[in-house]
Amino acid sequence: MKARQGFSGKAGFIAAAAGGAVGLGNIWRFPFEVGEGGGAAFILIYLVFCFMLCFPLLVTEIAIGRSSGKNQVAAYPTLGHARWSLLGGFGMLTGVLILSFYNVVAAWCFGYFIEISMGNFDIGQHFSPFIKDAFKISSYALVFMLATVYIVSRGITKGIEKYSKVLMPALVAIILFITGYSLTLPGACEGIKFYLLPDLSQISFEMIYSAMGHAFFSLSLGLGAMTTYGSYVKRQDNILSSAMAITLADTGVAFFSGLMLFPLVFSEGLATDGGPGLIFMALPTAFESLGPTPGVVIGGLFFMLLSLAALTSTVSILEIPVSWLSEDFKMGRKRATWTAALVVLAMGIPSLLANGHSDIFTHFITYPGSEEPTDFMTFLSDLAGNTFLPAGGFLTAVFTALIWKKDNLASELASANEKLIHRYLSSFVIFSIRYLCPWILGALFVINLLKIFFGSSLI
């Protein structure tokens, strides 16, 4: 029987997992949520949840994967009961749903990289027609998915690990370069003050709720990516230190993304709460104002950065169904990768058409309490990204606390290192999984469910 693939070492796993965690949410969603949340106060709350809630769940998902040595669907019944395969399947479904619209957004970023690199700064003024062009966006989405397929089809060490070791340093280098440039712009100090000096009066329930949701989303928890990657981790590698490195990398990229954007935003007099439109509509004009050459270089690098961040995430999510198909259905890796990719592309068609090309998908549903209809892509993001993800995290915590039990988790965490700091971290992880994660994630799931079915006015 062919031996199961695995990462060559700890560094390869951290690069791949950090790449999977670092995505578009860190670079374009995090800064505008900071802007809407009032600046540095949002960052403080976000960091608290990253280490209090997300780090323990990240450790647990990796531990479940390594202990079982199975893919996302098979991992839970291996450690518990056959019925828990439903949890694994639920996580994989969530990942596929997210990937179906995530690949469309990645296509926008890739398209903008091409347009800005060619000096077409007017693309920001034509964002709606751009995303409405189904042929152009589908072409970019296909190219992006082909890149994802190429990496995943080559396997763990020769594909995911090898390219993660290239993509992650490139991503960090671009962030640091643009950050250095942004800090030299006139008015950058005002952006830094807004970003780094907390105004505690801005703290509200809505802001705490947003920070908690973003922290959970940004680390790619609740969908099985970390469980799948964890199943490829060697026994001698320390899970706690690896998970801490991944969490620090994820929060570090998010932090520097804000440090990269807010000096530019204040220098150009842009609204700090501009939302996604800030990235795709306002920034191209801001890049143009830097001058022809700096604008093309900085703007091109920025959207290349978004494309690289999206690619590391699409790779990690596609690996979830690929590992299931190749192991449970005995498919060859290339066949499994193409099968999963074609399903994702087909499922992404409604999201592709939901930005003005199709009236049905553009005005897909009207939430209770809202007067404006919501498009299919936003609905899918609300359902899979904001609701299914915390549900998956909640059920994982319940499974660990009640089925797998704390002693098994403690044993898995203690298998590689008995340093004092690791014992403290292990105790904290177990406490959080038993007493914090179930209640907080359960509440997040219920709140998001209420927002979809009863309207945001109830929150």
Report on the architecture of this protein.
With 459 residues, the chain is an all-alpha fold. It has one domain: Hydantoin permease (Orthogonal Bundle). The chain is built from 20 helices and no strands. It is globular and about 60 Å long.
Notable traits:
mainly alpha, Hydantoin permease, 77% helix, single chain, 459 residues
Give the class from helix and strand content and strand pairing.
Answer: mainly alpha
Q: Write down the CATH class.
A: Mainly Alpha
Largest sheet: none
**Rg of Cα set:** 21 Å
Shape: globular
| Structure annotation, total helices | 20
Low-confidence stretches: none
Report the portion of residues in β strands: under 5%
Number of strands: 0
Within the CATH hierarchy, at the fold level, what is the topology? Hydantoin permease
Task: Estimate nothing, just give the exact number of structural domains.
Answer: 1
| Distance, first to last CA | 54 Å
Short description:
The protein is an all-alpha fold.
Task: Break the fold down into its secondary structure elements and pairings.
Elements lengths: L9 H12 L2 H13 L3 H29 L3 H8 L5 H33 L9 H6 L1 H20 L2 H27 L5 H9 L8 H14 L6 H6 L8 H29 L8 H14 L2 H37 L4 H15 L1 H4 L6 H4 L13 H29 L1 H8 L6 H35 L5
